[in-house]
Amino acid sequence: MKSRIAELQARITKDVDYAFESLLQAQPDLSLKMEGELEEVLRMAELIEGELDEASGISELERLDRRIEFIEDRFEELEAELYSRPRRRRKRRPNLFDFFRQATGGGGWGGSTDPQGEVSNAAQAFAILGLEEGSSYTAVTKAFRMKVKELHPDARAGDRSGEVQLRKLIAAYQYIKSIYNWGEDTASPSRDA
Q1: Which residues contact 152 (CB under 8 A, 6 or more apart)?
Q2: 130: left (phi over 0), alpha (psi -120 to 50) or beta
Q3: With contact defined as beta carbons under 8 Å apart, do 65 and 51 qualify?
Q4: Potential cystine with 115: which of 119, 159, 163, 171 (Cβ 3.0-4.6 Å)?
Q5: What is the 3-state secondary structure of 71-125?
Q6: In sequence order, which residues have a C-beta less than 8 Å from that of residue 99 and are 6 or more positions away?
Q7: What value does the mean pLDDT take over residues 166-175?
Q8: Residue 111 pLDDT > 50, yes or no?
Q9: Confidence at residue 100, expressed as pLDDT on a 0 to 100 scale
């Protein structure tokens, strides 16, 4: 990861120099805009580099890897704009964390092959949603949607640190729907299950 950050920092520095030297006379607004945005990406890379030295576990390293990927994508967007070219499709690097998870039999997200396995009973599912057991379908759906909006990476500027909570939230919602046989158009629970 450190080599990825170093490579990214070198490319950003080169592009900042280009934006300053080549564009300043011809397109001063674009030059200043690009210089500022590239320097912001450089600051993010430096922050991640500092956090990388302090990372103490696999989950922290995995989170930093996702953040590096995010700033690499952002840099590609800026570089395409700077050089007035279409954005290149960046080859995705193999995710070593997924590789090790699969090699050790961990499976998909977070090492669990069945996300519903994270929720073992109705009381736990309702607690994850922040509701009392037996709450209405409307309350469950409203709580679920509100919490998803808080935890989803798109609502957090790409920050994926809430993914574990998001997976539990989804598992809880699916568990409740399955035990009450709630469908998409259900207005009230069917407690036959």
Answers
A1: 162, 166
A2: left
A3: no
A4: 171
A5: HHHHHHHHHHHHCCCCCCCCCCCCCHHHHHHHHCCCCCHHHCCCHHHHCCCHHHH
A6: none
A7: 85
A8: no
A9: 53
Put residue 109 in one of left, alpha, beta given phi > 0 → left and psi -120 to 50 → alpha.
beta
In DSSP notation, 31-52 reads HHHHHHHHHHHHHHHHHHHHHH
> Which comes out higher in pLDDT, residue 112 or 27?
27
Q: Is the pLDDT of residue 101 over 60?
A: no
CB 172 within 8 A of CB 125: yes
Q: Which amino acid belongs to residue 19?
A: A
Q: Is the dihedral of CA 47, 49, 55, 60 positive or negative?
A: positive
Q: Which of 33-37, 58-62, 97-101, 167-171 has the lowest mean pLDDT?
A: 97-101
Q: How far apart are CA 86 and CA 76, in angstroms?
A: 10
Over 60: is that where the pLDDT of 5 sits?
Answer: yes
CA distance 178 to 180: 6
Tally of residues, the chain: 193
Q: What is the mean pLDDT of the chain?
A: 77
